[in-house]
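User: Second chain of the day. Same drill as before.
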Amino acid sequence: MSDGKLILVVDDEEDVVSYLTSLLEDNGYETISALDGAEGFKLAREKKPALITLDITMPEESGVRMFRNLQQTEETSKIPVIIVTGVSSDFKQFIESRRQVHPPEAYFEKPIDKDEFLKKVKELVS
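Assistant: Same format as last time:
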């Protein structure tokens, strides 16, 4: 179980994982990472992070599927999720129209505004 500072970063782009991991760790958070939704979901169930940052477009298993799996699994359904993606704002409208899932806590389009991102992380994790 996390102490409230563990954040799971899920993105198939290693440079994005590296950037987010460094940004979060430089601001006092612990991180773990996954390169696809299947690995991310497995880590979320095992480690129960305080927060998940999630890309949408990934090989193997998409962020949409992982997001749905998180919400449909009791042990992970309450973990807040921030979508960090290159997908346009049309995705935000799409996910918010789904009845099967609740919308994520925040969306950030790549490249992210690091100050706004950290502000939202602090709000969700503190």
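The helical segments are 14-26, 37-47, 63-72, 89-97, 114-125.

User: Great, on to the next one.
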